[in-house]
Amino acid sequence: MDFSLSEEQQLIQEMAARFAATELAPIAAALDRDAQGQRPAMLANVAKLAELGFLGLNIRSEYGGAEAGTLAFSLVITELAKACAATAVTVSVTNMVAEVIQAVGTEQQKQYYLPKLCSGEMLAGSFCLTEAGAGSDPAGMRTQAKAVEGGWVLNGTKQWITNAEFAGVFVVWAVTDTSQAKGKGISCFLVEAGTPGMQIGPAEHKMGQHGSATNEVAFVDCQVPANALMGELNQGFKVAVGELAGGRIGIGSLALGVAQAAMDYGRQYLTERQQFGRPLSDFQALQWMLADRYTELEAARLLLWQAAWLKEQGLPFAKQASMAKLYASESANRACYDALQMLGGYGYMQEYPLERMTRDVRITTIYEGTSEIQRLVIARELLRELQ
Ligand SMILES: Cc1cc2nc3c(=O)[nH]c(=O)nc-3n(C[C@H](O)[C@H](O)[C@H](O)COP(=O)(O)OP(=O)(O)OC[C@H]3O[C@@H](n4cnc5c(N)ncnc54)[C@H](O)[C@@H]3O)c2cc1C
Fold first, then answer.
1. Per the database record, which ranges form the Acyl-CoA dehydrogenase/oxidase N-terminal domain (predicted)?
2. What is the pLDDT of residues 156-178, one digit of tens each?
3. Which residues are catalytic?
4. 364 C-alpha vs ligand 1 centroid, how far in Å?
5. What are the pLDDT digits (tens) for 108-129?
6. Ligand 1, residues 97, 137, 160: which to mutate, most atoms within 8 A of Cβ?
7. Which of 57, 115, 141, 322 is most exposed, with minimal Cβ within 10 Å?
């Protein structure tokens, strides 16, 4: 067994780390305080990330992608999240949107959308599944698409959609056959920004990741052409479930990045701050926090890399992706909590990055499937293995 990264993976990781340190870190706190004011700077960074090939990391080169694989995707998201979780999630979701198009799009859809997403011509993608009444149970969605001459008409409202403010293309799930059992008559559509009838709601007020866009997306008699249908009619729910598994590697990697940065900051602080006439790092209670949290981060990294490797090999990876997301996001929350604790009152102050990181990391146990849903997926797979 070989745990070392290939030369290409190391290079990509270094590029991402350098970009995060020089371009993302300097504006991360300002973006957190004033998301709208800093939006142009944030989007300029996303455009530069496109130039680096980071918006289509697992997309084939014939469609303009970097074709670097899922492990490279995980490495990039971790490095970006060390500096700015909001930018990292923007990139993670855009990669996921590109991957779903690559997986189930027609040749025409792939040739049209993927080069635009990878190059940043369409600066981001959005994944529109959740609704007010359908979160953990998206099969209960109410958004409908009705066939009309020459296309489809969409009606319904998606909620908390990442990147919606500036995405060029939206992957949207809607019920296309109400007579079928729940989750069966759902299809997937590609809707371009600016399509009449698609309305982007105001920015949500969130606990963290302020710099990432999260908005409602409403469809009011929104007509799309027949070729906006992506994948097989009425088979869209399976596509959503399958693609979410890949997305979970992204969110787990993001959680790992935030937590790694938080613990690295805390570790350094322990060596510099003195109390009782000694550096904090002399106190065993704090040493044990370091030992426990770094051990968990290492375990999270291995789970993520394993899930990424399985996906790259074309092997089943849903269980491992859920395990990796569950463990990475929960251990990352513990790491940020402890790192903040190591700084005492300073950790609670906005002049130090820990309070932002602790808010930013909180969502990772919720979006792209809550921890409870990951456990449900893992347990279902474990029991299925018995059959
Ligand atoms: C900032 C942000 C960005 C997001 N971005 C996107 C996006 O880009 N696209 C998108 O489609 N969605 C997005 N979401 C939605 C996100 O994926 C959902 O919030 C998430 O799936 C949970 O759904 P819910 O919030 O409706 O919670 P609910 O489903 O109402 O769950 C509430 C609680 O009940 C638990 N629960 C539910 N069912 C079960 C069960 N069977 N067993 C045990 N416990 C259960 C949950 O784990 C949770 O603790 C985003 C959300 C946020 C907050």
1. 6-121
2. 999 999 999 999 999 999 999 99
3. 368
4. 11
5. 999 999 999 999 999 999 999 9
6. 160
7. 115
Please report where in the chains the tokens 């770094």 appear, as a residue. 294
Residues with CB under 6 A from ligand 1: 93, 127-130, 135-136, 160-162, 206, 214, 363, 366-370, 372-373, 376
How deeply is 304 buried, as exposed, middle or buried, from its count of CB atoms within 10 A (0-12, 13-18, 19+)? buried
Q: Mean of the pLDDT values across residues 78-95? A: 98
In our burial notation (b when 16+ CB lie closer than 10 A, e otherwise), range 26-64 reads ebbbebbeebeebbeebbebbeebbebbbbbbbbeeebb
Is residue 13 within 8 A of residue 79, CB to CB? The reply is yes
Whether residue 176 contacts residue 143, with contact meaning beta carbons closer than 8 Å, is answered with no
| CA-wise closest residue to 286 among 345, 246, 340 | 340
pLDDT at residue 337 in the model: 98
CA distance 12 to 289: 31
Indicate the pairing of strand 125-128 with strand 169-175.
parallel
Per-residue pLDDT tens for 251-286?
Answer: 999 999 999 999 999 999 999 999 999 999 999 999
Question: Residue 112 is encoded by which pair of tokens?
Answer: 């049209």
Q: Which two tokens stand for residue 210?
A: 């302020």
